[in-house]
């Protein structure tokens, strides 16, 4: 039988070794992910809405039992426990390993679908003789629905459950991707890409699942493997597919789109077989019997035992409801009544706007740099003197692959900020500050390789505060309304995406200095957000 201990010995590099080793051991105690939690109790009268306190409901400390400590405790027969207490008691085992592996492919498929657009739009710019505006419009169409899809699928996940929402959104994307490959012209392709993007809000379902399924000290495994390694691997699939499929043959891009859609089909199949519903969500909506079945299944897979009589209670969260009469808006009002939650929310929102442009915009910048470098009468800082008919070739894709492989270093950055427990504020100030300096180097009109290195390094650094941002945002909201509020926040962050192709692909045809100035502006926004961000962020 192949185990994660075996895989770790075969890992190709030390970063993958650490992730496999973490999956095998459940994460060492020193690799804990401690929330920036203000331990001061909040006071006030809220009727049927629970106001959190720090009094534990059992011998187990709320949401903080380490894997190595779990053996020192036994759950008592007939006592009340929250799902987070039980998850901490069960530790990181086979069940969580399967869940992390399934979600790995969710991250992989999403990133393969997103990062094919710079290649596809550049290809059709030549093959369909598009204008620069038409090229940007095609890319913008792929992102137009993304912002709106996050709150839509967030509400679906809070109403129907995390698992069905995740599967149905991937099925939607798969169908729309096939339709895109059959599009007869630009107009139909834009329509299909907009429909495709309406299900792109899958990410706001994945991150809360890590938060709800994994013990606190092991959450770093999910984030590094998913948002780090899986995202980097997924972003490389379109480049590998371009090398293998895209040639001078008209219409070869259709097979390219189909190949990049295969991961969605694979994820749907394994999710239907192995993904289970979040027990924390089930308890929050009153489905305690189902939650108990899931927890007992996890216990069996982890070779642990639970008491025969187990009383599950909701988490102690701001906005958590104990009575059915309490409405969704009641929970939101209570949540937003706390000034420190409002302050943290606004700052995280501004950080999200900055990171969305940098992370997604840099993919377009790298493609444009390689594309324009091939023009015989243009350079980095100035537009071409005549219309270009150059199609990216294998050597260009290989260069893109080499540059894109540096995204694996982003997993290293995430690993550092998580195991050393950097605060979001410190991470934002450091990483955004360095990135501003790096991107300003583009004003010097460097060579192609230096420019690509500066862009890649900036994108890599921003992944540090980016992963902390998602973790803190998940922790702000109570379980019952977590994915819907998470989706609304993500919607606001992603409003910048539809204009990103215009800011990069259109402006770069005139001067790369315009693109550089816009990028620096977003980096400064992220740095300012870090300045006003509280040192301690409340965690529900």
Structural features, described:
It contains 23 helices and four strands. α7 runs antiparallel to α8 (186-197). The strands form two sheets. Strands 1-4 form a two-stranded antiparallel ribbon. It has a two-stranded parallel sheet with strand order 2-3. Residues 1-72 and 383-387 have low confidence and may be disordered. The chain is mostly helical.
Q: What's the CATH class label of the largest domain?
A: Mainly Alpha
Integer-rounded radius of gyration: 23 Å
Major sheet: 2 strands, antiparallel
Helix content bin: 55-70%
What gap, in angstroms, lies between the N and C termini?
A: 40 Å
Number of helices: 23
Structure characteristics:
two-stranded antiparallel ribbon, Growth Hormone, Chain: A, mainly alpha, 540 residues
Q: Any chance you could write out the topology, listing elements then pairs?
A:
Elements: H1 4-9, H2 14-25, E1 49-50, E2 80-81, H3 83-90, H4 94-114, H5 117-127, H6 132-160, H7 162-181, H8 186-197, H9 203-213, H10 219-245, H11 252-259, H12 262-274, H13 279-284, H14 288-301, E3 311-312, E4 320-321, H15 328-336, H16 339-373, H17 394-404, H18 408-419, H19 424-440, H20 448-476, H21 482-493, H22 500-506, H23 512-532
Parallel strand pairs: 2-3
Antiparallel strand pairs: 1-4
Could you give a quick summary of the protein structure above?
This protein has helices spanning 4-9, 14-25, 83-90, 94-114, 117-127, 132-160, 162-181, 186-197, 203-213, 219-245, 252-259, 262-274, 279-284, 288-301, 328-336, 339-373, 394-404, 408-419, 424-440, 448-476, 482-493, 500-506, 512-532; strands at 49-50, 80-81, 311-312, 320-321.
